[in-house]
Amino acid sequence: MSAAELKNPPQNQTSGASDMAHIVLTFDNNKLASALYGQFDENLARLEQKLGVDIRSRGNQLAIKGTASAAEQARRALDTLYGILQKGADIGQSDVDGAVRMAIAADDQLTLPTMERKGKVSAAQIATRKRTIYARSLNQDAYMRALERSEMVFGIGPAGTGKTYLAVAHAAMLLERGMVERIVLSRPAVEAGERLGFLPGDMKEKVDPYLRPLYDALYDMMPADKVERAIAAEVIEIAPLAFMRGRTLAHAAVILDEAQNTTPMQMKMFLTRLGENSRMIVTGDPTQIDLPPNTKSGLVEALRILDGVPGIVTVRFNEGDVVRHPLVAEIVKAYDRDGKLARGLGAES
């Protein structure tokens, strides 16, 4: 049974409001319907704000009124959120925002071949033992599908778009399913605009501060004790980029994070480590390069050189894909505007 039953399909009302529609949804589980609405109907209020519709609840029924397109988008978003609840997961504000983004983009979504009607295709998902992650934007959807079918994927874009988090989630899923034998995490040891000086401890302790975002994502996907055991057994390996020369990484999910801070030589060395039955994921943001002045970014060079190479997929995120606090998207937009203005002034001078 579908998550929501369409009682009255979108239909034209009076001639004075020919583009308006009225949709009634009935949910088969009152407890899940209550979770869908949110405390004090906060999720419904957020949908109203995002899509410009009017949503009224009465028990397990919802009445959606608005333009035909907006009402249909609200229906899609509610159907998606109810499906998540049916699978035992909780939903929050970010899930509502993600469902709205996917609902708006559904008509233009490019998907793998499917028998489903356009606009009804489910968002891509990554399922690990601890949790299931659903795509919250069209580019996240494309990224997750690329990770599923490609051996080398570049995820490029600003902070907060989920490119690293989804890469780690996919690697954890591959490990749990036995599709790879280990996960290799790497990141260039470049400080973001400051010098931390000498770091005490062994190699793992020295590089841990740089890899903390990867660890955080791992702990979200796998039980903490399992992560610790896997690290101790080197099933999850911390591999400083500088020490990877000469290795061949076979039967592994390999992630290079913050790749914009590699040199061209480091990037070439890393990419040529790809071995048999391995997946390689490279993430980075070319607008946040922390290399010394006049040093080329290996990520920027690789994107130029490898453009069009069969088997390599590049997914580019933008501020519309930011899934952190809404202010993060606005901050990214502001910095982008300032950068474009600065480049324009530089071109004129």
From TrEMBL:
For whether the record's keyword set contains Aminoacyl-tRNA synthetase, the answer is: no
Mostly located where? cytoplasm
Compartments annotated for it: namely: Cytoplasm
What's the name of the protein? Answer: PhoH-like protein
- Annotated coiled-coil positions are none
Q: What organism is this sequence from?
A: Rhizobium loti
GO-annotated cellular components: cytosol
Q: Which domain of life is it from?
A: Bacteria
Q: Which GO terms describe its molecular function?
A: ATP binding
- Record domain PhoH-like protein: where: 133-336
| Family affiliation | Belongs to the PhoH family.
Q: Does the keyword Ribosomal protein apply?
A: no
Q: Which UniProt keywords apply?
A: ATP-binding, Cytoplasm, Nucleotide-binding
Among InterPro entries, the record links this protein to:
P-loop_NTPase (IPR027417), PhoH (IPR003714), PhoH2-like (IPR051451)
